[in-house]
Design brief:
This protein is an alpha/beta fold and 386 residues long. It has a domain at 47-203 and 240-290 and 320-347 and 364-385: SGNH hydrolase (Rossmann fold). It has helices spanning 5-33, 111-114, 124-133, 152-161, 179-186, 213-220, 222-238, 243-248, 262-281, 304-309, 322-334, 342-346, 364-380; strands at 53-55, 61-63, 68-71, 80-83, 102-109, 139-146, 170-175, 190-193, 196-199, 285-290, 337-340. The strands form 4 sheets. Strands 6-5-7-10-11 form a 5-stranded parallel beta sheet, with helices on both faces. A two-stranded antiparallel ribbon has the order 1-2. A hairpin with a 2-residue loop joins strand 8 (190-193) and strand 9.
């Protein structure tokens, strides 16, 4: 067959023009659609809470400081005001120093403590303040320091670098059943020295490249922005342990068929001892508390879609008490006071009503029960006598 350079050139030009037309069409369609992709700050927090979070150079991520917005965590939760103070904690701005004669309590933890799905007055911290106020004449100040996606590692770093300035009398740390998997995702980002440790968000470690005119033009286009947003949403997590791999086995340690995860459990709980030292240095005392998740109390049939998303398998509710016993043993060894509220949930009459069916967290009723049990422990075991 004779080689026809003009025909080949014409075909190449036609293909190039079609490609340009397709790209222009895609650009116009994306501009018309005008739906910016939501950037994920951490895959360990719900997608609906990402807009509340910002990357942190010391504790991976935190609530956006001085934020005031209307937030809807889910269709069932409805809209409510969400306020963040200058310390990155939900609620009013705390006084420094605390007013004379007051007793300051910080409550650290993850989504269960922050309570993005409920109003400020329905959080564990708010309930705890009301329950304790009925039992004492002391002026109480309970500060909600919970942040979605947190675990003991990040709670310790947040306290060490930021919250210690509040000089609390008591720090309550909620240890969640998801904390083993959460710790696995963050630990590879931890930079630790004898007297200093940080867990920088991966996006803050990426060095910016020199601006190229062509690259700048592409990035400013709708097509480029969409592609870059997709890359940013997934790329930073590649620098850490795969969050997807960790989340596939997020609840393995609560199952009756327990895998050997002793090393992961040890790593996840070790920061509690460091937090105890940091709290003591700030003049306070530490109390570790925990509550069960839905599948440790009722059947997965009560939340089939959530159970499927979380990879729950086997017969539920799980009866093995391994997680609670491990926490008890660790706290006993570390001389940390420990409040296990699991029996109150297991013996409660409201069962399914104690848990959300949209996320592995407590419901409004469950948060009130959790706060009541913590208050009961504090009243019967006064921190002043610890």
């Amino acid at each position: 067959m004779a080689f026809r350079p003009l025909t080949t050139l014409r075909n190449a030009a036609t293909a190039s023009m079609l490609l340009v037309v397709a790209l222009v069409g895609l650009e116009l369609w994306l501009q018309g659609k005008s739906m910016p992709a939501m950037q994920s700050v951490t895959h360990q927090a719900p997608a609906t809470d990402q807009s509340l979070l910002v990357p942190s150079a010391v504790c991976h991520h935190e609530l956006q400081r001085m934020l005031k917005t209307k937030h809807q965590a889910s269709r069932a939760s409805g809209n409510h005001v969400f306020r963040v103070n200058s310390f990155g904690c939900r609620g009013d701005e705390p006084e420094i120093p605390a007013s004379t004669g007051s007793y300051r309590i910080l409550v650290l933890g993850d989504d269960n403590i922050c309570g993005t799905a409920v109003a400020e007055n329905d959080t564990v911290s708010a309930h705890l303040q009301r329950f304790l106020a009925k039992q004492t004449m002391v002026r109480l100040e309970v500060i909600n320091c919970g942040i979605p996606g947190y675990c003991p590692l990040l709670s310790w770093l947040k306290f060490e670098h930021d919250l210690a300035k509040l000089k609390p009398d008591l720090v309550v740390l909620h240890v969640d059943m998801t904390d083993i998997a959460d710790d696995l995702c963050y630990r590879s980002l931890l930079l630790s020295a004898p007297n200093h440790a940080v867990c920088s968000h991966p996006s803050l470690r990426l060095k910016p490249k020199p601006v190229n005119p062509l690259a700048h033009f592409v990035k400013q286009s709708a097509t480029g922005s969409w592609l870059f947003a997709k890359a940013r949403a997934q790329g930073p997590e590649i620098l850490s342990i795969s969050s997807g791999a960790a989340n596939e086995n997020r609840f393995d340690w609560i199952t009756d068929d327990l895998p050997d995860i002793r090393l992961q459990v040890s790593h996840a709980l070790e920061p509690i001892a460091r937090l105890k030292a940091a709290v003591a240095a700030a003049g306070g005392r530490l109390l570790v508390t925990t509550a069960p998740v839905l599948w440790q109390v009722v059947s997965a049939d009560n939340a089939p879609q959530l159970s499927f998303r979380c990879g729950i398998r086997g017969t539920t509710p799980y009866r093995r008490r391994f997680p609670f016993e491990v926490l008890q043993t660790f706290c006993d060894h570390s001389l940390v006071h420990y409040c296990d509220t699991s029996l109150a949930f297991e013996n409660g009459k409201d069962g399914p009503k104690l848990f959300s069916t949209e996320a592995p967290i407590l419901s409004r009723i469950g948060m009130a029960l959790y706060a009541r049990e913590i208050a009961r422990y504090i009243i019967t075991n006064p921190p002043a006598e610890w």
